[in-house]
């Protein structure tokens, strides 16, 4: 894959895209689960905070969130600490994309929580299990199983959103394609190659997600 000497750079950009997406998905899933717990809390304050957080980041354009995190967050931290704070493009991209991912995944987790039969929880409580033990042994495994299809869709959207981080200078796949195009004046070759790499990453991801779904359903009645 030479592509006029830019093949290695495109592959490096694709690898950085995957790293960015994986980090954002992991952090976003954890934050989304915490947001879901806030949404179903008995505390009105926590519920309001959870729904407010999710609605805010679902309403904002992804590009705007990236720009706010990259340019605005350092200024806010400097105002709070009194010291200059710098956030690199990769870290800013992870933070911004994870905030967006968490806003949507919290609704996925909340739907999965509601999909768990109440009888299972009632039986666990009757056997003397506490709330956190029920969460760990009863709810969490089923939430993961029920959420996987929707989380897979969010993952594919996240992969495409990584291209937006190019605007703050991160040299992921889209940025590498732009740089190669500016030098060679051959946009069809390099944007076409970038498109092909995105498709390959998506196909491999989809295959992996399907395998995870099949594994999560093992032992269930047909």
TrEMBL record:
Main subcellular location: membrane
Assigned keywords, A-Z: Cell inner membrane, Cell membrane, Membrane, Transmembrane, Transmembrane helix, Transport
Subcellular location: Cell inner membrane; Cell membrane
PROSITE patterns: ABC_TM1 (PS50928)
A cellular-component GO term for this protein: ATP-binding cassette (ABC) transporter complex
Keyword set includes Transmembrane helix: yes
Pfam (any one): BPD_transp_1
Transmembrane annotation, as ranges: 12-38, 59-81, 87-104, 146-168, 188-209
SUPFAM superfamilies (alphabetical): MetI-like
Molecular functions (GO terms): transmembrane transporter activity
Membrane topology term: Multi-pass membrane protein
Keyword Ribosomal protein: no
Domain ABC transmembrane type-1: 14-209
InterPro entries: AA_ABC_transptr_permease_3TM (IPR010065), ABC_transp_permease_HisMQ (IPR051613), MetI-like (IPR000515), MetI-like_sf (IPR035906)
PANTHER family cross-referenced by the UniProt entry: ARGININE ABC TRANSPORTER PERMEASE PROTEIN ARTQ, CATIONIC AMINO ACID TRANSPORTER, MEMBRANE COMPONENT
Family: Belongs to the binding-protein-dependent transport system permease family. HisMQ subfamily.
Protein name per its UniProtKB record: ABC transporter permease
């Amino acid at each position: 894959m030479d592509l006029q000497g830019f093949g290695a750079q495109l592959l490096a950009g694709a690898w950085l895209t995957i790293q960015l997406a994986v980090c954002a998905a992991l952090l976003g899933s954890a934050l989304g689960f915490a947001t879901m717990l806030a949404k179903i809390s008995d505390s009105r304050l926590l519920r309001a905070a959870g729904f407010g957080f999710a609605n805010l980041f679902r309403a904002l354009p992804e590009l705007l969130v990236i720009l706010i995190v990259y340019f605005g967050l350092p200024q806010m931290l400097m105002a709070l600490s009194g010291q200059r704070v710098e956030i690199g493009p990769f870290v800013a991209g992870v933070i911004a994309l994870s905030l967006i991912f968490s806003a949507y995944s919290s609704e996925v987790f909340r739907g999965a929580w509601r999909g768990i039969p109440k009888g299972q929880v009632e039986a666990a409580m009757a056997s003397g299990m506490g709330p956190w033990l029920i969460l760990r042994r009863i709810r969490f495994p089923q939430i993961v199983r029920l959420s996987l299809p929707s989380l897979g869709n969010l993952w594919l959207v996240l992969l495409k959103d990584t291209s937006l981080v190019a605007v703050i200078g991160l040299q992921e796949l889209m940025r590498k394609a732009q740089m190669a195009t500016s030098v060679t004046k051959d946009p069809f070759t390099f944007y076409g190659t970038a498109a092909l790499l995105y498709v390959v990453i998506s196909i491999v991801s989809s295959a992996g997600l399907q395998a995870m779904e099949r594994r999560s359903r093992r032992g269930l009645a047909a």
